[in-house]
Specification:
CATH class: Alpha Beta
Number of domains: 1
Strand order of the largest sheet: 6-7-8-3-9-10
Distance between the termini: 21 Å
Strand content: 25-35%
Largest sheet: 6 strands, mixed
Order of helices and strands: EEEHEEHEHHHEHEHEE
CATH architecture: 3-Layer(aba) Sandwich
Radius of gyration: 18 Å
Length: about 240
């Protein structure tokens, strides 16, 4: 397998080519202190996710699912091991570089949507592009196209508290994908929805994946969600215990 490249201090994201898996985590460990107790949240986890592949992580609460998502999404650093994203070793970045890289190459969908309450739906969806310095007129044009695709054209001027749960999650998915990330991280994306809206969100993720070709790594307790994935990884006590197609 080709080795991950070490990123220079300045890099041109447009020249990145996927000659390796979009995500490649190798023998990842994560420990932290809870008071005076040392907790081993991850104990040697390895996984790889290709472009356009959906991988579900399942397991009981406390098994390490969310910790693994945070490491793979460049929100945290492992205690030991290596995480490569889009061919780059994440440990090669300093904190500022890691933040810029995460904004450019990773999208996030959370159980409780995490929309900013004082921004409209359109502003929430366009936020990643605005943070990247794109002109507002260009951003709003892309927002309009994506809002139509996710069925929110009539809601773009509403605030998040004026949306149903399903609408809020669709807005969050649009925000996560508007900057065409290499990796989409979804932590219990249907966990706060009823079964009907959960099914609609799954259909939307499947549809948008074909347009973006992003790798999707999601954690779930829902067997119906896991069944939509190309591969299911079972975790227990910070370890991978099974990986099934």
């Amino acid at each position: 397998m080709p080795q991950c490249e070490t990123a220079p201090a300045r890099y041109d994201l447009s020249c990145i080519v996927n000659t390796v898996p979009v995500l490649d985590a190798r023998d990842v460990h994560k420990s932290y202190h809870r008071g005076e107790q040392l907790v081993d949240a991850l104990r040697g986890v390895s996984l790889a996710v290709d472009a356009g592949e959906v991988v579900a992580i399942v397991g009981p609460s406390g098994c390490g699912k969310s910790t693994l998502l945070h490491l793979c999404g460049a929100m945290d650093r492992p205690s030991r091991g290596e995480v490569c994203l889009d061919g780059r070793r994440l440990e090669s970045f300093d904190d500022d570089e890691l933040t810029r890289f995460r904004r450019a190459r990773v999208g996030f969908v959370f159980q409780f949507f995490n929309l900013l309450p004082t921004l409209t739906v359109a502003q929430n969806i366009g936020l990643p592009l605005l943070l990247a310095g794109r002109a507002e007129t260009d951003v709003m044009r892309e927002v309009a196209m994506l809002a139509e695709r996710v069925g929110l054209s009539s809601r773009v001027d509403h605030l998040p508290q004026q949306l149903s749960g399903g609408e809020a999650q669709r807005a969050a998915i649009a925000r996560a994908l508007i900057h065409h990330p290499a990796l989409l991280i979804a932590d219990e994306p249907t966990g706060n929805l009823d079964s009907e809206n959960g099914a609609r969100v799954l259909e939307l993720l499947a549809e948008l994946k074909t347009h973006s070709n992003a790798a999707i790594l999601l954690a779930t307790h829902d067997a119906n969600v896991a069944a939509q994935a190309a591969r299911t990884i079972h975790m227990r006590d910070g370890r991978v215990v099974d990986s099934l197609p």
